[in-house]
Amino acid sequence: MWPRFGIDIWMTVTAIAEGFRVGQAYLGAKLHDAKDPGSDLTSMFRQVVGSFFSLMESYDGIWKNVQACEAVPMFGFPFEVGGGTAYGKYRSHDSCRAAGRQRFA
Fold this sequence. Notes:
The chain is α+β, with helices and mostly antiparallel strands. The chain contains 6 helices and 6 strands; from the N terminus they run H-E-H-H-H-E-E-E-E-H-H-E. The protein has helices at about 5-15, 35-40, 40-60, 60-65, 85-90, 95-100, and strands at about 25, 70, 75, 80, 85, 100-105. The strands form 3 sheets. The chain has a two-stranded parallel ribbon. Strands 2-6 form a two-stranded antiparallel sheet. It has a two-stranded antiparallel ribbon with strand order 4-5. Helix 1 (about 5-15) runs parallel beside helix 3. The N and C termini lie far apart (about 40 Å). Residues about 90-95 have low confidence and may be disordered.
């Protein structure tokens, strides 16, 4: 049975690992049915993290050779999320964007 959660991380990791061009878009909040993750966050967490770790194992030859990161293009317009713009809220955590390109030590 295919997991109900984890498709977002699967698409992102697969695209990066397979060499596709990627970007970031402002899409707004992703809403789930109240009964889906709210009733059992453990199941959702296991599926998302399980997908991620499975992909890390599948593409270990790629991740182990990464020596730098690059900022990706952003599309759309910032929007309010919890009292601040989405861009402003997460901007400080994006060292690649701030540096343009950053080499790992």
